[in-house]
From TrEMBL:
It is found in: Endoplasmic reticulum. One of its GO terms (biological process) is dolichol-linked oligosaccharide biosynthetic process. Transfers mannose from GDP-mannose to dolichol monophosphate to form dolichol phosphate mannose (Dol-P-Man) which is the mannosyl donor in pathways leading to N-glycosylation, glycosyl phosphatidylinositol membrane anchoring, and O-mannosylation of proteins; catalytic subunit of the dolichol-phosphate mannose (DPM) synthase complex. Keywords: Endoplasmic reticulum, Glycosyltransferase, Magnesium, Manganese, Metal-binding, Transferase. This is Dolichol-phosphate mannosyltransferase subunit 1. Belongs to the glycosyltransferase 2 family. It is an enzyme of class 2 (transferase). It comes from Dicaeum eximium. One of its GO terms (molecular function) is metal ion binding. Component of the dolichol-phosphate mannose (DPM) synthase complex. One of its GO terms (cellular component) is endoplasmic reticulum membrane. The gene is Dpm1.
């Protein structure tokens, strides 16, 4: 377990076939944090990518230094494994496919301090948030998933399936211990359990842009798993 460094932000970047995206997202994050004076580290956790992502991650670790970039092979769930090595007292979870605008980390930091929130979640469905690059089918799936969740669970947050969030490290650890879901439903359960445990959640509108390179892993199996997970949470919360 890494020793905590107050004020440091640890970014967990799970990757799979992100060779083309990874150098750019790391450069953007490093520049953004450096410009804002925020102490940071980026932890890349690759799930056995066959496209050369691992080699790229190892090169980035050499270029930036292991104090700023740490490359891991996952042992179990990527987030749980990454937390073991995270030294920041705040942890950001985001995608590595450039769908999340890295400069929003500055907004996240401001929002967290503004309300001393345990979690700050990016929302596509509030304020000036939005989604760009999705076809109608994908938009309907996302909107439908959020609508069903709002009706059944009343979680008090507007975007339950988004994956761009900042957590206090100790809060993330407690939520990981409680959550049992995987895949598409995992993000939803994290917010539902947070409310259940009394943690505070703030929201920041974000513009989500569909990935530039690679393909989404969302498919029929993920949708079925989401519906099963939703019903399980409805029955147990």
């Amino acid at each position: 377990m890494a020793a905590p460094r107050p004020g440091r932000v640890s970014v967990l970047l799970p990757t799979y076939n992100e060779r083309d995206n990874l150098p750019l997202v790391v450069w953007l994050l490093a520049r953004t944090f450096a410009d804002s004076g925020i102490d940071f580290e980026i932890i890349i956790i690759d799930d056995g990518s066959p496209d050369g992502t691992q080699e790229v991650a190892q090169q980035l670790e050499k270029i930036y230094g292991s104090d700023k970039i740490l490359f891991l092979f996952p042992s179990g769930t990527a987030y749980i494994h990454g937390m073991k090595f995270a030294s920041g007292d705040f942890i950001v979870i985001m995608d590595a496919d450039l769908s999340h605008h890295v400069r929003l980390h500055l907004m996240f930091s401001g929002k967290q301090k503004e309300g001393n929130f345990d979690i700050v979640s990016g929302t596509r469905y509030k304020g000036n948030g939005g989604v760009y690059g999705w076809d109608l089918k994908r938009k309907l799936i996302s909107r439908g998933a959020n609508f069903l969740t709002q009706v059944l669970l009343r979680p008090g947050a507007s975007d339950l399936t988004g994956s761009f969030r900042l957590y206090r490290k100790e809060v993330l650890q407690k939520l990981m211990e409680k959550c049992v879901s995987k895949g598409y439903v995992f993000q939803m359960e994290m917010i539902v359990r947070a409310r259940q445990l009394g943690f505070t959640v703030g929201e920041v509108p974000i513009s989500f842009v569909d990935r530039v390179y690679g393909e989404s892993k969302l498919g029929g199996n993920e949708i079925v798993s989401f519906l099963k997970g939703l019903l399980t949470l409805f029955a147990t919360t």
